[in-house]
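Late entry, evening session. Most of the bench is empty. Finally got around to the prediction I had been postponing all week. Sequence below, unchanged from the version circulated by S.P.
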Amino acid sequence: MSIDLRRYQNPARTRSFAAVITDADGIKTAIATNVAAQSYTGAALNGAIANPGPALVYMRIVSVTTTASPATYNTTDPIIFTGTNQGAAARTANLLLTQAGGGETIYSVVGFDLVSQIDVPAQLGGGGQFEFGVFDILPDDPLCGVVSSVGGNVNVVYEDGRGDIIPLAAAHREALPICRIVSASTTAFPLTALFPY
């Protein structure tokens, strides 16, 4: 496989992350489960990243976290995130809970650039809580690279699926086809991701 390095020389945009990528309630803070279907948009997306929505999340995986509550959660119908990808095309992700008693976090398999709506199906009871947030950076096309502001390690995944921990000097730009920046204790912040689109 050959790599056209020209696309990595001039990123279309950059995004700096001052602290950890993960924010479990960054899109919507804790909300009680409801036995009627709920839809959250605009001001109802009140997490630190949105506040109010839509939430510009810069190609991050979205997550749903539930508190423990016996026989409370719907494991048959998905929670649906609606938004856009890095090319501003419409994107949805269906996340299906697996534990009726809660106490889990589930993740999308695609990244979102922006989240505009979250639709939650009717739940089995009102004793639990949801949080909606973000996880790893997962662009549709590989990043142009990454820059570490202060120096340190960055945990990444390449196009071929290999994981790696890249040690970076302060302000050094690593121009590699990075497909994922992983939310891990080995990743040093702040850092800047370089997007091709």
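Two things to note before I forget:
The two ends are 21 Å apart (CA to CA).
The chain has a mean pLDDT of 89.
Will write this up properly tomorrow.
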